[in-house]
Each structure stands twice: as C-alpha cells, then as structure tokens.
Write a structure and sequence with these properties.
Elements: H1 2-7, E1 12-15, H2 26-37, H3 42-53, E2 60-63, H4 66-72, H5 74-83, E3 86-90, H6 100-109, E4 112-117, H7 125-130, E5 136-139, H8 155-165, E6 170-173, H9 179-186, E7 191-192, H10 196-205, H11 209-224
Parallel strand pairs: 1-2, 2-3, 3-4, 4-5, 5-6, 6-7
Length: 225
Amino acid sequence: MLKMAQAGCDLIEIGIPFSDPIAEGPVIQEANLRSLSQGTTTDKVFALAKKVSHQVDIPLVFMTYLNVLFKYGYDRFLQKAVDSGISGVIIPDLPFEEKEELSSVADTYGVEVVSLIAPTSEDRIKKIASQAKGFIYTVSSLGVTGTRSEIKTDLESITNAVKQATDIPVAIGFGINTPEQAKKYSRIADGIIVGSAIVKIIAQYGADSPDRVYEYVKSMKDAIR
C-alpha cells in the first residue's frame, strides 16, 4: 500500500476478506479465500490500516460486506475504523433503500458510507447521488469485479446524470485495468478505481510485488495526468 501511495494514488481501498464476496470476480474471490485461510481477521485489518494511516497522507477506505460490520457491531466497528485512520466504507451488498441502517450510525463517527451507482440504477441515479457522501462509486458494467478488455456501458450519460444531482467526485470502477482505459474514463469522471489488476499482480509476484505494483499504479496515474 505504501508503494501505491508513492506512485500517486489519491485514495487507497483496503479490503476486509469475507467468505461470500458476491460482487467479486475470480481474482478477488481467490484473494479473499487466501487471506481467510491464512488467518486474517477484522482486527488484523484494523491494525494494518492504522499502521498504514500513520505513513501516508491520503484517505483510506474499507471495502467489505455488510455482515462483517453487522457481526462486529456497527458502533464498535466504526469506532475502531476511526481509530485506524479510515475515512469511509464501501459496502457493495448494502441496498440504497436500506443504507440508513448503517449511515445513521456512521454519521456519528464521521465515517462516510460510499454510494454505488450501477448501469441498472436508471431513474434511481439522481436519488442515490443527491444523498451520497465522500464520492460516488460508479460501477462500469453489469456483473462482478474483474479486468475487462471492453466496457460497453454508456458511462458518460450515467456520469452526467450523477453530476446533475451532486457536486461530490464521481469515480468509475469494475474492469478498468489499462492506462488507455484510465485515460478514457478519467475524462468522463473525476477518478478511476482499480482493484483486480493490482490484486492479480500481488497474487502473481507475492513478496516481490511491491515494486511491480508501484510501476503499474504509476503507469495508470501518468495516463490521467
């Protein structure tokens, strides 16, 4: 993560592993299972986040599933998140209509629950965007996370609809993995989100991955400057 910050990341997403990551493709599913099988716990991720937060000056957010927070206890989880330097949480399986369950608690701790907008959100886009905090996570394609060679969604129209409803930043994720894609979609949105491509590098190179992650992230950042 330190290498990502050094390469120019503006925000780092830290995944808390979950046994049933329904929004994830094979790369991140396998990463979840590897992490859990090696004894990763929520408390260990809190400790990691706290260590990283003392070494970087960019926001850190958690990406995980609602059951992790529910089982841990919303108040207890969010207090530890704040103590660990976390600014927000991304919960893909939390429907907008039920978001208040978590956001009402998160607001008291100053933790932002990031809203996701999908290609199927349609007439709900403005409603979701108008109540969003932190940034909008725009899902580029139907399906799960994973690198994609082509994205066919009309992301410009979706982004325009979001921007009509809110002034907060809009970032596009799910599938973006090349500098060319980063350049293309950064012209539409305020940022791009990359997950699977980085996780794939880590899975492939293990202990030797930090420098390779640095070079990859730098190439993505250079493409959008």
